[in-house]
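Holo model, 2-acetamido-2-deoxy-beta-D-glucopyranose. Inputs:
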Amino acid sequence: MLWIQRFSGFFSAAMMWIVLSPSLPSSQPAEAIRSSHLHSYLRLPTHIPPFSFRKAPEFRNADVCGLSADITLGEIGVVCDPSLVHVAITLDVDYLRGSIAAVHSILQHSMCPETIFFHFLVSETGLETLVRSTFPQLKFKVYYFDPDRVRSLISTSVRQALEQPLNYARNYLADLLEPCVRRVIYLDSDLVVLDDISKLWYTSLGTKTIGAPEYCHANFTKYFTAAFWSDRRYSDTFGRRKPCYFNTGVMVMDLVKWRRFGYTKRIERWMEIQKMNRIYELGSLPPFLLVFAGHVAPIEHRWNQHGLGGDNVRGSCRDLHPGPVSLLHWSGSGKPWLRLDSRRPCPLDSLWAPYDLYEQHPSSLNSNPNKEEYYFFFFWVKFLD
Ligand SMILES: *[C@@H]1O[C@H](CO)[C@@H](O)[C@H](O)[C@H]1NC(C)=O
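Output:
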């Protein structure tokens, strides 16, 4: 494609002109531009995904679902439709295969898949096109999460993956999502849902701000260091609560209460303390425990069968906890797509495989993707839409 290469310089210049031009003509609401399009222009792709995904089958509402959201309302109008079920998931290159499988599993088990709105949190560009081509009918919006927002707050942990800035994006959902979104289900990227997610959505939180399955038999002491427990200024935070461990990979969040009580700041304050005086060893989980443990609306355990990734250090295979299963979660260091690829899967990894939409892109096998061509393509797609 010689002509592309020859003209790519011109197109790059044209792209920069559009980016820098203050009078960029636009028919889209400012909000939509801010969170999904402008960043696509400003941030050149940092990764070129070396893979693609099969198109998922179409998932349609059953008759009992009633009318689905009115598309003619535009992006903002749709997201504010009160009949929607809101789900937030991160998308990044390393866990993309997991996120796509999670979305696929949710749609497949939902009676009213067209009432689900996905909020994707990203820190790199180029993923929006990929989601659209995999799920052509999906209602979704992509939000840019600036890694610099948390980078200075993150301290080292037992596993490097836990230090990724995007892991901390769940703390900022109340700011990132539109104010009209009053509740959201946050889900990690290493899980599949085997039940109708609307059942989780309609769970009562009572007076609480977040809901999650609690594990009161887990030894809570071990989530914090001796330095934490020996300093009354810190450990007194649990003084008048009965804290139980919960996993932050599946949470139902009341964003109205979250905004009202400023939980984002409270979590950040514990992260600042951690920078000065090491009070825990894990990543984004302990600050959530510090703020919410003992104040969590208990959700049935079936909604987070976690730990299937195995131990944080060794990654051995795990079995299911007893009881019914609505969601399987490969938390821990082992991920099913990596173990399946390595041909040494754990037995339960076969339950993840049916939701995998990954396919090896034929061109990625023998060609080195050309950055210039990619930028050109990128610009052209943006130009056309
Ligand atoms: C809980 O863990 C702490 C620290 O690892 C340990 O000292 C304590 O004995 C444990 N408690 C129980 C009941 O196992």
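Confidence is low (pLDDT under 50) at residues 1-45, 364-385. Residues 219, 221-222 surround 2-acetamido-2-deoxy-beta-D-glucopyranose (CB under 6 Å).
Archived with the compound record.
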